[in-house]
Specification:
Strand content: 5-15%
Strand order of the largest sheet: 1-4
Oligomer: single chain
Helix content: 55-70%
Structural class: mainly alpha
Largest sheet: 2 strands, antiparallel
Order of helices and strands: HHHHHHHHHHHEEEEHHHHHHEE
Radius of gyration: 25 Å
């Protein structure tokens, strides 16, 4: 188990999951290169180049260049993520939605259906805004109502299809479907980003000191994300001595409960970016005549307001997502059922309060650390005038974080398979009958 990579395809179940995930991702990337009818991609890319430094450039990174090429999957998974965030926030405000989350499988299925319907609505809004934006670029051969209608329908269907692909990966593949779709969309721009950076260096637009700083930032962010993902606060747990079987005594044991510094993983980054990108992109696409939409578009451009809003949203969603995936009450009840306890803390409600207090304290530096790692590259690239969005803190955080999460899931499958094989390895005959040990 020291090097599990050679064993990935030796486990039939894990092999099927990996191949299925790769197949779905291949379909997604093929669809992300099919242009909507009636658009001249060459003209669009020339017009889009002037907007890459803003919020549209960030959105384009998340969808693998779909906006700059006007593809049928240009909206990507972002409408679905926005809808998911919306209902998770509503659960904290409306008891009906919260009750639905706790009703088990039926409630979750109903909530999933509502999320899908909301995704369709958001896709229609974003699709129409993008179609209206395309009409202003001069890249549309026959602009007008028919083009707006067909483009809106095409993009909405594409967004629904991407949503379905993400759900298939989550259910039948390996890893989180939403995260992996964004992951592969980002890394697709890696070769082009490297080429643009090298061309800028050769042309003298980037100095050697700036290039060295870029490499240092890349290595530093990667190391910081790995350290943050692996870091944990260990809460000691005492398991008392028990009498099991016919007079056998199981000695007491000391163990621990690991509370990760960043239990939410990379999801706060995705949620925060989606929260900023979607309204900012709609405003920038549709706000061509002045007024409120132009004001919204200006607010969400990279700058002081953008950085402060982005950092605060990362901190908020770190706490929010941690509260969703980690329940101190359930953990305290499980410890109580097993007879385990935290030294110096009463079992039950006091244990839940203690775990919640520790988790809150641990999450604070983790969330601030996550926000700083996401924002520092923006400041460095602005200082050295490096416009290579793949190397931004957001993109690199997502790539490293999703990669680590997926590898950990694969290792868990291998570990379970390893133990199953160990348990079924031998056969021992007892009193004339065969039993497995």
């Amino acid at each position: 188990m020291a090097n599990p990579i050679p064993n990935l395809f030796r486990v039939p179940e894990l092999k099927e999951k990996i191949l299925f995930t790769l197949f779905i991702l291949l379909i997604y990337r093929v669809g992300a290169h099919i242009t909507v009818p009636g658009v001249d991609v060459g003209i669009l890319r020339q017009q889009f180049g002037a907007l890459e430094g803003g919020i549209l450039g960030i959105y384009d990174m998340f969808v693998g260049g779909g906006l700059s090429r006007a593809t049928i999957l240009a909206l990507g998974i972002m409408p679905y993520i926005s809808a998911s965030i919306m209902f998770q926030l509503l659960a904290a405000v409306f008891p009906t939605v919260e009750k639905m989350q706790k009703e088990g499988e039926d409630g979750r299925q109903k909530l999933t259906q509502w999320t899908r319907y909301t995704t369709v609505i958001l896709s229609v809004i974003q699709g129409f805004s993008y179609a209206a934006f395309l009409n202003t670029t001069g890249a549309v051969r026959d602009p007008g109502f028919i083009f707006n209608l067909t483009t809106t329908v095409t993009l909405t269907v594409g967004a629904i299809f991407v949503m379905w692909l993400g759900e298939q990966i989550t259910e039948r593949g390996i890893g989180n479907g939403m995260s992996l779709l964004i992951f592969f969309s980002i890394i697709e721009g890696f070769p082009a980003a490297v080429a643009r950076t090298w061309e800028s260096f050769i042309a003298g637009q980037i100095q050697i000191f700036a290039l060295v700083a870029l490499v240092v930032v890349l290595v530093g962010i990667t190391a910081a994300v790995v350290a943050m993902t692996m870091g944990a606060r260990k809460i000691p747990v005492q398991i008392p001595r028990k009498v099991v079987g016919r007079g056998r005594i199981r000695e007491g044991q000391k163990s621990f409960v690991p509370l990760r510094v960043n239990s939410a993983g990379v999801m706060p980054i995705i949620f925060a970016q989606s929260f900023i990108v979607v309204p900012g992109t709609i405003a920038q696409l549709a706000g061509q005549t002045g007024g409120f939409l132009d004001l919204v578009a200006d607010i969400f451009q990279p700058g002081p307001v953008y950085y402060i809003t982005y950092g605060l949203l990362i901190v908020f969603f770190t706490y929010f997502y941690t509260a969703i995936i980690f329940n101190p009450v359930d953990l305290a009840e499980n410890l109580k059922k097993q007879g385990a306890f935290i030294p110096g803390v009463k079992p039950g409600a006091r244990t839940a309060e203690y775990i919640d207090r520790v988790l809150t304290r641990v999450t604070l530096p983790g969330s601030v650390y996550l926000a700083l790692v996401a924002l520092v590259p923006f400041w460095i690239f602005s200082l050295f005038n490096i416009q290579t969005f793949f190397f931004g803190g957001t993109g690199l955080l997502i790539v490293v974080g999703v990669g680590l999460d997926t590898v950990q899931q694969a290792q868990q499958h291998l570990l379970l398979r390893h133990y199953d094989g160990f348990m079924k390895k031998g056969r021992v005959k007892m009193r004339g009958r065969s039993r497995y040990v």
